[in-house]
Amino acid sequence: MSIAIRDVREHELDSVLALNNAAGPAILPLDSARLRRLFDSAEYFRVAERDGAMAGFLIGFGSHARHESSNFSWFRERYPDFFYIDRVVVASRRRGGGVGRALYADVQSYAELRYPQLACEVFLEHGADHALLFHGSFGFREVGQNVMPEHDLRAAMLMKTLCSYPWVRDTYGDALPDEPWLQRPRAIVADAPVAVSSKGACA
User: Fold this and answer.
1) Which residues form the N-acetyltransferase domain (predicted)?
2) Most buried pick, 26, 90, 113, 174, via CB within 10 A?
3) The model's pTM
4) Is residue 101 a contact partner of residue 194, using CB atoms and an 8 Å limit?
């Protein structure tokens, strides 16, 4: 079986909303208006498909975006340039099958050409060990904690250095090559499970 990663389509927003709000307490709920704002403003909004059905999605923003999130603001107050994973959701029946790893591999391949660091958070109130282990296996490290005042939730704030970025920046500056695989929209297909570097360590 394979996992396909592609940009979300507007008519799929109802399915995305249902998937988000069925994910449990580790993911903040959304309403349709909030999801529409994310759709209109997100730099990265992609879904994972397996067997022709939506299996997950990931939404991300560059550090200079206008984004309504106290966790995003926490990072922006401390770091000048990063790519922020706002949320990643995998359908419950697909967890443990490589969907989350496929989404993270894709968002990293997108971000490392454009940003020096990748940022995200893990809520600590709801059995976070598996999520922290998952992110640690990708090379994320905790750089602090933040309590979201609007939800009274404590989050571990995680960052990962993207090792390819300095070379890309020095070589291409602000103008990436005009190659189809660098442009959006695009679709990739990965055989599952997806293999990634266990540590993501820079040489």
Assistant:
1) 3-164
2) 90
3) 0.89
4) yes
